Amino acid sequence: MLDLTPTCPSCNSKNIKIHTHYETKNHGQRVINECNECHRCFSSTFNTFLAGIRKPISLVIQVIKSRTEGLGLNAVCRTFEISKNTLINWESRFSGIKKTLLLYALVHNFLKLTIEGDEVYTRVGKNVAPDESLGWTVVLMDRASRFLWELQCGKKDRQLFRKALRTLNKIIAKTKDISLITDGERRYGNILFEICHELIYTGKKGRPRKTLKNGVKVRIKNKGSQAHKKGPKRQKYQAPQPEHPETIQDIVNKDIHANHCEAFNSSLRRRNSTFRRRTNTYAKNENGLQRTLDVLWVIHNFIRTHFTIKQVPAVALGILDKKLSWDELFMIPVAA
After folding, report:
1. Which of 20, 80, 144, 329 is most exposed, with the fewest beta carbons within 10 Å of its own?
2. Helix ranges restricted to H, the chain
3. Closest CA to 139 of 101, 185, 93
4. How confident is the model over 44-93, as pLDDT tens digits?
């Protein structure tokens, strides 16, 4: 279970005792802790989301829920009578919560994972050509639990895919059997091969053959017609890079799809106003778009019950025994 025991900010000791109590305007009584090792005193909300928050917690929860149910930034500010800077500050704090929870998820070991990869597009700033837009978002989702491993936005280039696949590389180190399924986009397999491969030594002359690591499988479903294209036609289902000879091949063609990821992309357009089509609520910059994606990542994985699997994705994946409450979420130490 996620450890929420307070630690000393100076010496990281958990040998803490209650020093005194104090009253707040909207949050009742809170605790001042004292470290028994270095004798530093600090508030129970130090380095958490609640540090410095003076608004009622119920209002903060309503605001965040509204933002993850499709209400735009200006509409939320008008509805709940808060300033834009306040809302942006609250959402920015969630980025730290995401980092902490992602680090916690990556320490777990998994026997087998099937991850779907897909991209979703929106405008950022001005309405430029899709190839120049910073609004492309790479989605990496576990198929069985619907757990979102990555929501990374930016320009659709190698750098964006490398950022997302660095997380996948960390998951591979904790998983014995992992499959990556994509629709048509070959850069997933190619870049993963660059950062996650090994050499096969056979004792024969010549350079050792490069393959994906043992247990790692990548499959692509090529979509659309290729009748108008010149040259050899690609197969509908492909492994873009050579795989380790000891990897168990148990993927059938009917399972090579990203349908669950595409369903999430459809819900993303409803739940995140920056992805709404034919409106002017798109993100004004890349950092603003990533901020909203981080908030959605936390709510989707650890708070909201998925309507299909009837569980919170983090519980279905086995990371948590039960879903986090809002109080527990707000007391998680924020990563720098």
Report:
1. 20
2. 57-67, 73-80, 84-106, 158-172, 187-195, 259-271, 286-302, 313-317, 326-330
3. 185
4. 888 888 888 889 999 999 999 999 999 999 999 999 999 999 999 999 98
Check residue 279 and give its pLDDT. 67
- DSSP for 10-22 reads TT----EEEEEEE
Same domain for 212 and 130?
yes
Which helix (DSSP H) or strand (DSSP E) does residue 180 occupy? strand 175-183
For residue 163, give the 3-state DSSP assignment: helix
**Neighbour-count burial of 52, counting CB atoms closer than 10 A to its CB (0-12 exposed, 13-18 middle, 19+ buried):** exposed
Listed in sequence order, the residues at least 6 apart from 201 whose beta carbon sits closer than 8 Å to its beta carbon are 208
pLDDT tens per residue, range 153-168: 999 999 999 999 999 9
Q: Is residue 2 part of a domain?
A: yes
Residue 45's pLDDT is 86
Domain end point (choices 46, 61, 78)? 46
Helices (H) and strands (E) in the chain, counts: 9, 11
Q: What pTM was estimated for this model as a whole?
A: 0.90
Span between the terminal Cα atoms of the chain, in Å: 22
Name the residue type at position 83: S
Task: Give me the CATH number covering residue 143.
Answer: 3.30.420
Copy the structure tokens of residue 184: 């048509």
